[in-house]
Design goal:
single chain; two-stranded antiparallel ribbon; 2 strands; about 0% strand; transmembrane; Vitamin K-dependent gamma-carboxylase-like protein
């Protein structure tokens, strides 16, 4: 049993998949800071007594956010993430980006509201430095890289599964028949959500569906590969529905979900290299005498 679990946890994957995943994750970080989590910068301007650090922040004695600290993290993360996306100095840059983004998340979630859409991407940043060297197009299998992807996949599924546990923990079985989704539709629903709200029982049925989806999300680890991609497609479809109904995108989580995909088959770097080589080798047009 232990050997089977270890084989599953460290199932080798092509290094090209790690290279692609690493590039995608690190390129996303600047986009996240600039477009999706820029609101965190405002925490540097808040009074210090409003800062209620997470447990991990208290254990690590992390400093109270200031304007200088928040901006230093913001402007350091952007270039460092871009450098890390190249795959060079993967340990040094990887650990640095993880540490800075970890603090960025602690600052974000220490003012009363805790989101769970960045848990999996944070895990990805934590394990990518351990994945070893990887180049685009390299089909050599790597167990270290396999572990990095598996850990990210577990974090993705845990985000769903633990969300359902949280619903029952704080709302009990009454959550299933409560007005949570109705309130969301009224407060931030799109035109489509407003139309669906008129259908009797739609939100209640949807809440049963959401909890069922979250509870059974671990099935992705127990189906055959061709069905696994179908399940992952279902994950993406779920988020397409949430963004179309209540404009919640879960973009960081969706980036982490690419750990399930054969990213090595998408090779923009290799395609560029081939195009560049063909351009260099093509003969120059003859000039008229």
């Amino acid at each position: 049993m232990t050997q089977r679990f270890t084989s599953w946890l460290f199932a080798p994957v092509p290094k090209a998949r790690i290279a692609a995943f690493r590039t995608l994750v690190y390129l996303f970080i600047p986009l996240d800071l600039i477009f999706f989590s820029a609101w965190i910068k405002s925490h540097g301007n808040l009074p210090g007594n409003l800062y209620q650090p997470l447990v991990v922040g208290r254990l690590l004695h992390l400093p109270t956010p200031t304007h200088l600290l928040v901006n230093a993290i913001f402007y350091a993360l952007i270039p460092l993430s871009l450098l890390a996306a190249t795959g060079r100095a993967h340990r040094l840059l990887g650990w640095t980006v993880f540490a800075l983004y970890f603090e960025w998340m602690v600052i974000a979630m220490s003012y009363g509201k805790i989101d769970h859409d960045r848990y999996a991407i944070l895990v990805a940043l934590a394990v990518l430095p351990t994945a070893g060297r990887a180049r685009h197009g390299d089909q050599t299998p790597t167990e270290a890289g396999g572990f990095a992807l598996r850990a990210t996949q577990v974090a993705v599924v845990a985000t769903y599964f633990l969300a359902s546990i949280s619903k029952f923990r704080y709302g009990g079985l009454a959550w299933l028949t409560g007005a949570t989704l109705t309130r969301s539709f009224i407060r931030r629903g799109t035109a489509l959500a407003q139309w669906l709200l008129k259908i009797p029982g739609f939100t209640t049925a949807s809440q049963f569906g959401i909890v069922g989806f979250e509870l059974f999300s671990p099935i992705v680890f127990f189906v055959k590969p061709k069905w696994r991609y179908a399940v992952v497609a279902g994950f993406y479809l779920f988020h397409l529905m949430t963004v179309s109904l209540i404009t919640i995108s879960f973009i960081p989580h969706q980036i982490a979900m690419t750990s399930f995909l054969p990213l090595e088959k998408i090779q923009p770097v290799i395609w560029y290299r081939k195009w560049r080589d063909r351009t260099k080798q093509s003969p120059e047009p003859a000039t008229a005498a």
